[in-house]
Structures are given as structure tokens and as C-alpha cells.
Specification:
This protein is α/β, with parallel strands linked by helices. The protein is built from 14 helices and 9 strands. The chain is about 50% helix and about 15% strand. The structure holds fe (ii) ion (2 copies).
Length: about 325
């Protein structure tokens, strides 16, 4: 496979696993085409044309090596210059980061966060409310990300002539869909059971052994779960802290999160929503693994690094 083919496969899998309905995704793609057409000529060169086929602004090829057959990949959750030097030493053809780098980091999170509104709407939160709350949060995240040194690791990979890409929301979608189906099948009764259940997933079991297993951050072990919502696994980063009150109003009882800030925790507590933190790096690993399995099945060697808990699943 070439980098381009790996990239296209990640998008295909991301769309398939997306919790939104497929019409919402089609709309994102057609809106991008329309936006481009309506741009004045002087602005067109700045438009990212990947948006025509890729609805995930935080998943991109950073350094392509056209026509190169990829045989060996180094992949991890955070890829920095250290990992890139390692990639050079291990003579890999491509590095795949999970967290955004380069263009995905510079302006990738804002667009993809909008999908949180659609996911919440599918759980019953009125779209107008979900949309307005996420908009405010997007501004906050954007202000935080803007001053970063977005291309630092990309520059290192460029000097060493190594291919680099990152797969963020496509893999978080895979984790979200997996967890949604998992809880639908397991049907845990209370918070304690939900927590135990998660340990059946090898990434969380391993994380627990390593000291960062799932835990309950809001709620008590014997509390009933009510309706479980998978609203905090995908969609760029943490959403609006004001959303918990709205979620409670539409009958959501429990949410499964990758991580939770103190401010978010307090709001969830006030809204009487249970929150189970599945774990950040373990959940990111789950999503990456579901994608990496597909690459391994095509004969590519996968070398995990940077926190990635590699678990292989059968076809
Ligand atoms: Fe993630
Ligand atoms: Fe993450």
C-alpha cells in the first residue's frame, strides 16, 4: 500500500464507524465543495481540497512519498521529534501519529468538533442547543491551539525524509462505535458493572495493570446507569461543559469519557449524570488498533511506540 492508499482507507473506516447518520457526513463534504466554489479567486489557493472527500480535518497526510510501497510503520499516540529519530533508526517507511501534528493541529480540531453537535442531536439533544454550545467551546479550543509550534515534528520527518501522517478522529470514531456496540451487548446494570465490563476490553485491562485503568469520576458504584451515551470519545476534544444539564434533560443517565476536566466534572455532578472515564491513552489505543489491524492484514509490519497499547484482533 502507498501512503495515499493508507490515508484513503483510514477515511473509509472513519466514515463507516461514524456515529452520525450518513446524510450529515455527505452534507459536510458537499458544503466544503460549495464553500470552495464561492471563494474569491485570491482565497482559493488556501483552501484544503482534502475536505472534498475527507470529513475529518484532523486526519491528514503530513509528508507523502508518492508511489512508495509501505512495508514497515512506526505508530504511536503522540509523535514528536524523538519518535521520528527512532523511526529513522528503525528504518521504517512511514510514521502514523494519533494526535494531530502539522496541518491537523494548526486548524484541524475546530471543524471536526462540529460533529459533536450531530452526535448529541442523535441522542435527543435539540440540534440548536448542541450547536450553540459547541460553537463556544470551539472558540476556546482554537485560541488554545493557535500559538503552538504546529509543524515541529513534521519538519524533523522532512529532514530525515520519512513519510508522516496522523489519524485522529477516524480512529476515535472506531473506538466510539466499538464502545457503543459493546455496551449495547453487555447491558451493564449499574456503574460498578459498567466499570467491570470495560476490563473485558484488553486495552483497558492492560491499562489497569499499568496503573491507569478505567474509573468512575462522577457517580457511585451502585448507581443505576440509565441510558448510556457515547458522546465523549470522538469529535476532536472535550466538548462544552454546559452540555451535561441538556443531556440529563433528554434522558441520558451515563456518559463514557476518555478524560474529563475538573470543570466538566463539576457540571456533570450538578446534572446528576454518571461519568465513567475509560481512559485517554487506552481509548486512543483501542481506536488505533482497530485501524492498524487492517494494515497488518495487508502485510504491513506495525511497530507501536509512544504509549500505544497494541492489541491485535482477529478478522
Ligand atoms: Fe483520540
Ligand atoms: Fe487523545
Amino acid at each position: 500500500m502507498t501512503i495515499e492508499q493508507i490515508y484513503k482507507l483510514s477515511i473509509e473506516l472513519g466514515i463507516k464507524a461514524d456515529l452520525r447518520n450518513k446524510e450529515d457526513i455527505k452534507r459536510v463534504l458537499s458544503d466544503a465543495k460549495k464553500e470552495y466554489q464561492d471563494l474569491p479567486k485570491s482565497e482559493k489557493e488556501y483552501f484544503d481540497k482534502d475536505k472534498f472527500f475527507n470529513p475529518y480535518s484532523d486526519t491528514r497526510i503530513q509528508i507523502d512519498k508518492p508511489n512508495k510501497k509501505i512495508k514497515k510503520i512506526l505508530t504511536g499516540i503522540d509523535i514528536d521529534s524523538a519518535e521520528i529519530l527512532l523511526a529513522d533508526k528503525l528504518k521504517v517507511d512511514l510514521i502514523i501519529a494519533h494526535h494531530p501534528v502539522g496541518k491537523s493541529l494548526a486548524d484541524g480540531l475546530e471543524d471536526v468538533m462540529k460533529m459533536q453537535a450531530d452526535i448529541l442531536a442523535d441522542y435527543g439533544v435539540p440540534i440548536n442547543i448542541a450547536e450553540k454550545l459547541i460553537e463556544k467551546r470551539i472558540t476556546e479550543v482554537s485560541q488554545k491551539v493557535k500559538p503552538a509550534n504546529h509543524y515541529q515534528s513534521v519538519d524533523t520527518a522532512k529532514l530525515l525524509n520519512i513519510g508522516l501522517m496522523n489519524t485522529h478522529t477516524v480512529c476515535d470514531n472506531l473506538a466510539a462505535k466499538f464502545l457503543k456496540e459493546f455496551f449495547e451487548k453487555e447491558k451493564p446494570y449499574n456503574v460498578e458493572e459498567a466499570l467491570h465490563c470495560l476490563l473485558k476490553i484488553p486495552e483497558y485491562k492492560q491499562a489497569k495493570k499499568m496503573g491507569f485503568g478505567p474509573f468512575v469520576i462522577v457517580g457511585s458504584p451502585k448507581h443505576r446507569l440509565g441510558k448510556i451515551a457515547i458522546t465523549e470519545i470522538t469529535g476532536g476534544t472535550e466538548g462544552s461543559k454546559q452540555i451535561y444539564e441538556k443531556m440529563a434533560q433528554v434522558g441520558i443517565g451515563t456518559t463514557i469519557a476518555m478524560h474529563l476536566s475538573e470543570e466538566h466534572r463539576q457540571e456533570a455532578e450538578k446534572a446528576n449524570i454518571n461519568v465513567i472515564v475509560a481512559g485517554h491513552i487506552s481509548s486512543d489505543s483501542l481506536g488505533m488498533n482497530l485501524f492498524l489491524d487492517k494494515l497488518e492484514q495487508k502485510g504491513i509490519e506495525i511497530i507501536p511506540c509512544s504509549g500505544l497499547i497494541r492489541v491485535k484482533r482477529k478478522k
